[in-house]
Amino acid sequence: MSMKTRDEKEKKRDLFTTIFWILVLVFLIVKIVIPETGVLGMVNEGSNAVLFFGIGGSCVWTIIHKRKTNKTAVVFGVLLLVLILGIGGWISGKLVLDLISGPEVVRLTSVTMRESSGIYGLISRHYYLCGRDDEWTEYQMEISSDEYYELEGEEQVTVLCYPRTERILKFL
Questions:
Q1: C-alpha closest to that of 36 among 51, 52, 47
Q2: Considering the entire predicted model, what is its pTM?
Q3: What is the mean pLDDT of residues 24-34?
């Protein structure tokens, strides 16, 4: 293999790596910007699955390119791939089942609100609507800070939501 061909391959690989990490950054920004409730809530949920599958794809890429030179990287890559694809499969499985079955009306009783810190309390705060439906199934649905303060003190709340991913489409 000539030196020029090797340099071209390295440049191409660097370009793909840069594009990949830019896409990961875009998906992280999507996670921060897109609301937790409403129609875009499911897009937010889908971005989780895409992010995990993208990182899994990166692991496969590393495994393929380092399989002959670095056996430790291959073993680590395979383990990380299994973990990432497992989590991505679990997330996307719930998402797909919710999209197939469609949203449901859920009447929550014994409603409580919960607030928690984001990543180490530095980036964001998360707000949750918690309660039980008529069949005593417990729900913990992420909501916006505005919705958190609007619903404070409510004992019952009715929502149109996707039950598996616990994403609220709208309040009824």
A1: 47
A2: 0.70
A3: 79
Residue 108 near residue 129 (C-beta atoms within 8 A): yes
Domain span including residue 151: 104-171
The CATH number given to whatever domain includes residue 166 is 2.40.50
User: Confidence band (pLDDT; 50, 70, 90) for 143?
Assistant: very high
- Residue 122 exposed, middle or buried by CB count within 10 Å (0-12, 13-18, 19+): exposed
Are 69 and 90 members of one domain? yes
* Residues 81 and 17 placed together within one structural domain of the fold: yes
40 and 90, same domain (yes or no) = yes
Q: In the structure, what pLDDT confidence band is assigned to residue 156 with cuts at 50, 70 and 90?
A: very high
Q: Do 112 and 94 fall within a single domain? A: no
Buried b (16+ CB within 10 A) or exposed e, 94-115: bbeebeeeebeebebeebebee
Residue 81: how many other CB atoms lie within 10 Å: 18
Same domain, 95 and 109: no
> Model confidence over 88-114: pLDDT tens digits?
788 788 888 998 999 999 999 999 999
